[in-house]
Structures are given as C-alpha cells and as structure tokens.
Design brief:
Chain lengths: ~350, ~230
C-alpha cells in the first residue's frame, strides 16, 4: 500500500478574483519524484507553491502525512524550495547555504559540516568564501540547490530550476541533481515545461493545462498513451520505451527492452536504466524482409491502429512494445496496410534518443 | 570683494582656533539632526516595510501620500509643529516649544516621509519571489523581514543620507519651533541666517563651511560603505 506524504483536496487558487488553479484531488507518494509539466501559464508553479505552503488556496485542504496542514511554519521547516532564479542573498556562498540551518538555530559546527557536505555534492566547495554576487548563473543555481538540500528536507520543491540556464550548464546540473536525488531519499516535486527534464528526473508525471491536471502517470505511459490531443501535442509524439543497457562500447549501445534488444547511440554505462525515445517519422514500414538495410533495428510488428492525420497516417504498432510510425497515404495504399497485418518495422540506431532514467 | 575675502579669512580663523561657540553650535546641530534621523529611520523603515509587504485597500493612495510627504516644505512642518506645541495647542501641556526636543520633533516629521518613501521603494525592488524563498527556508515572519532589510541595506543607506541631508540643512522649521536661542536651540542653519541678517558675513561663512563639510563627510562615509558593498 502506497503511503501519501502529501494530499490535496478541492484546491482552488484565485488571482485577482479569477481562478488560476482547480485541482479536485492530488496525492504525492512518499519518495516519489513528480514532474508537473505543461506550457507557460498552465498553473505548474502555482500548484507547486500552493503545495509548498507558500500560496494560500481560496478553497481546499492540503494534508501532510495524513494531518491537515494547520501549522504552516512547522511544515515549511520540513520542506525546501528552489526557484527559477537562484534568489541568493548578498553575502558569501557559505552564508547562503547556511541560511536555512541558521534560521533553525542549528549548532555552528554542525552548520559548517552540512554546508561543506552539500557544497561538495553540488561541486561548489571552492566557491564557499566568494560573494554570491560574483559567481556565474550556473554556480548560483548550484548554490541555491545546495541551500535547499543542506536542510535535508522531506519534500523538495523545484520550480523550473533550470529554465534560465544555458544548455551546457543545464546539462551538467541536471546530471548532478539526478545523482543527488538518487543519493537522498527526499520526495521531490519539479515543475518544468521541458519533457526531457521530466523524463530524466521524475518517475511520475502530471501534465497540466489551464490550471488543471489533465493526465497523471509514469512518464512513458503518458508519452506513449497521451490522454488527449493537448497532452499529445505538448509531450510530443515520441515512443518512449524503458530498458536496461546490456552492451556499451564507443557510444554504441544495446538496450534490452524486455521483448527484444534495441541498438542505439548515446552515453550510458553497462546495466544502466535508460529511456529510449523514437520519433514516429523515423520509423519505416515494409511488408517483406527482402532487402539489406543500414537500419540497425529491424523487427516484425503487428498493425494495431491506423489513424488518419490529414496529410499522413499515424500507424500504431505492437512489436511486443508499443511503437508508432507516421506514413503517407501512398505508403498505406502501396503496402496495403490494414489493422492486424504483420509488417517489418525499421529504424536507425541514430534515430533513438537515449535518456538516463531516474 | 574685500568683504568676501575677509569673511573667508575670519571664517578659517574661527574654524582653526576651535571657537567655543562655533563648536557648540556644531555639536548641537549634529545631536539634533542625528537624533531626528535615528527616530525617522525607525519609523520610516518599519512603515516602508509594512506598506511594501502587505496588500490592503488604498495602498496606492498611501504610497502617493508618502511620496508627497517626501517634498513636505519645512516651513509648513514648522508651522504645524508650532501650533501643536503652542501653550494652548493640543500638546502644549508638555511645554517643549523652543527646546531642542521641539526641533527634533519637527525634523523627524520632515525626515520620516523621505526615509519611508526610499525604504518602500527599496523593498518593492527586491525580487518578487525572494519573500517566498525566505519563508521556504523556514523563516518566521520576523526573520523574513530582517533578512529583507539586510538585502535592501544599500538603498536603505541612501535613505539615511537623504534623511540626514534633508534635516541638517533645513532652517525654516528649526527657527520656528526652536527660536534660535543662543546656546540652547541655535543650530548651524539658524545661526547662519541670523549672522547674515546682522551683516556678520565672516561667522556666517564659517558656519556655512562647517555645514558643507559635515554634510560632505557624513555622505562620504556612507557612500564609501555603500560602494564597498556594491556587487561588482
């Protein structure tokens, strides 16, 4: 039986009299990593801040470990929050990381130990005596994360923590945050508009639109089976398949997805859990296995559904795992595609996007 | 021309011989304006912070009133304080008109809106999410306010400078509520007015030079602190 660390009921948040959030029910499992994903203005940050006890809902209740939240101050001392901007104080990096611990009146030597531990984990140990105003954007966000994690919170709320970083900086920090989340047992709630961030950090996903949660589930469930057109349009149309790396040499990977091995290109180590993303336009279909091909992944699949999409058809396949292909009307007619037909599906190893799973 | 040159020579003689009366006036000016600035700082920063951090109906009106108060003419303040402290006035009972306390009250009324206005702007200029971040770190409301004040310390120093600069150089209110009584309520500005009226330009110049030096030194110190702490 799952234990919920945080539950919400009938949460309504209004801004200037207008409803901006309407969440009939919400639950967060102990130890879960939940990504709130959706476009700008979907209400991700509002929901996150409401759950963090920083926005007062107009209606509804939040319970923490089964108890209704009455002591907000006490609750806030068990959580931590990281925002899109680092929001550092005008002092040293050390004093910034120590802020929350000092507010809790921790002992000085304990504070110093904790600050150094988390500065090291986030790779900013060498910056401790520097002014927080004289470090780069990436270093500032690392400081902000270290300040939150140094409190060893029971739930950590991350509000678009990478949105204002440039791609290389973001990549390095994502990697480190992924590792630290695995090292600590904190429950985490992340808001992001970037599906790759969600896939890399979260094991649960909630897609939001216009102040509501429109779909929740495991990331690959949502991406392979979007509940509606909005979700499909937002999360993209890639097929996502979880697997385990069984061979890795020189960037060439073999990944066991249960029913077969998939060849892919990317950085991963042997035995690592990964998510494979395959875009439907990269999947080709054939009715005979006659000719040689450079595609490294060729296997039979059954046509499950053929859905017209205007200029092309979306063909959903069952190959032991779900797979989707986009083909033209000419191909559908030329190959005589129909539901139930067995075809040969093929895609190149380079067409597989490999994401390390949380 | 001779008048001016002689005036300057006499002024520097007064300064360098540390004339007792001039020193006394200077010390009193510093004491009165310093006290008024301190009281205004306390009221101004608290009021500015409260207005900045809370949403309430009529907030814009309150901010407009504070901003208007920043340009309050000292003579108007002098008049109002005189009326209040007048023997038959609402606060006449205290019998403090024509005392240093009366000048401190008048100067506090002048400096408070200036410091409130600048503090308010300083608090409003902090990032919107900073308050939430501080609360999320586990701060009580009081701890949050204290951290915010520390974060706004550079513009708050500007508030101190503006407040002190406003009252040390003010003459209208001081003369009205203090009466320019020798050795009791005579400050640099009121003495300068009087000496100029009497044609004693040398003393008037000496007093003006001191006034300028004081204003310069205090602002130089505060500017130094402010620039040293400024992020580069």
């Amino acid at each position: 039986m799952k234990t919920f660390i945080l539950e919400g009921k009938g949460l309504i948040v209004k801004r200037g009299g207008v409803g901006v959030l309407d969440i009939p029910t919400f639950s967060l499992t102990q130890g879960a990593r939940l990504a709130l994903i959706g476009p700008n203005g979907a209400g991700k940050s509002t929901l996150l801040l409401t759950l963090a006890g920083l926005i007062k809902p107009a209606a509804g209740t939040i319970s923490y470990q089964g108890q209704s939240l009455s002591d907000l101050f006490g609750y806030r001392r068990r959580i931590a929050c990281v925002f899109q901007e680092p929001l550092l104080f005008d002092t040293t990096v050390h004093a910034n990381i120590a802020t929350g611990l000092k507010l809790r009146h921790s002992k000085a030597n304990g504070i110093d130990r904790q600050v150094k531990l988390y500065a090291e984990r986030f790779g900013i140990l060498h910056l401790l005596q520097r002014s927080a105003r004289k470090i780069s954007g990436g270093e500032a966000q690392r400081t902000s994360l270290a300040r939150a994690f140094a409190l060893e919170p029971e739930i950590v709320f991350l509000d678009e923590p990478f949105a204002s970083l440039d791609p290389p900086t973001r990549e390095g920090l994502l990697e480190d945050l992924h590792r630290i989340l695995n090292e600590t047992s904190a429950t985490a709630v992340l808001s992001t508009h970037d599906q790759e961030e969600a896939l890399r950090l979260a094991d649960e996903m909630a897609v939001m639109n216009a102040g509501r949660i429109v779909q929740t589930g495991r990331p690959e469930e949502i991406m392979n089976h979007p509940a509606d057109e909005f979700v499909a349009g937002f999360v993209g149309t890639e097929t996502v398949i979880p697997g385990t790396v069984t061979a890795a040499r020189q960037g060439s990977l073999s990944v066991d997805i249960g029913c077969r091995e998939i060849e892919a290109v990317g950085q991963a180590t042997l035995g690592e859990k990964v998510l494979l993303c395959i875009r439907p336009e990269n999947v080709t279909l054939a009715t005979d296995d006659g000719h040689a091909t450079s595609a490294r992944n060729v296997f039979p699949a059954t046509v499950a559904h053929i859905i017209p999409r205007g200029f092309y058809y979306k063909v959903e396949l069952d190959a032991g795992c779900p797979l989707t292909a986009y083909v033209t009307r000419q191909s559908v007619e030329g190959l005589g595609l129909r539901e139930g037909l067995t075809v040969i599906a093929a895609f190149k190893a380079t067409a597989v996007h490999v994401i390390k799973s949380p | 021309m001779d008048l001016i040159i002689e005036g300057f020579i006499k002024a520097f003689q007064l300064l360098f011989t540390l004339d007792a009366e001039v020193l006394g006036i200077t010390a009193l000016s510093l004491k009165i304006s310093g006290s008024a600035t301190l009281v205004s700082l306390f009221i101004g920063i608290s009021t500015g912070t409260i207005v900045a951090l809370n949403e309430f109906p009529g907030k814009r009106l309150v901010i407009s009133l504070i901003n208007t108060g920043m340009g309050l003419p000292p003579v108007v303040v002098g008049l109002l304080v005189t009326i209040f402290l007048w023997r038959n006035g609402p606060l006449g009972y205290f019998e403090i008109l024509y005392t240093p306390t009366a000048i401190i009250i008048a100067q506090t009324v002048i400096a408070t809106p200036i410091i409130t206005g600048i503090s308010l702007a300083a608090m409003q200029n902090l990032p919107a999410n900073l308050r939430l971040q501080i609360l999320a770190l586990g701060a009580s409301r009081l701890q949050m306010v204290w951290i915010l004040i520390k974060e706004a310390r550079l513009p708050l120093l500007a508030a101190v400078m503006a407040g002190f600069g406003g009252v040390i150089s003010e003459v209208g209110a001081s003369i009205m509520v203090g009466g320019n009584i020798k050795g009791y309520t005579r400050v640099l500005t009121t003495a300068t007015v009087m000496e100029t009226g009497k044609g004693n330009f040398d003393i008037a110049i000496a007093l003006s030079v001191i006034l300028l030096l004081l204003a310069f030194m205090i602002n130089a110190v505060l500017t130094h602190v402010q620039q040293r702490q400024r992020p580069r």
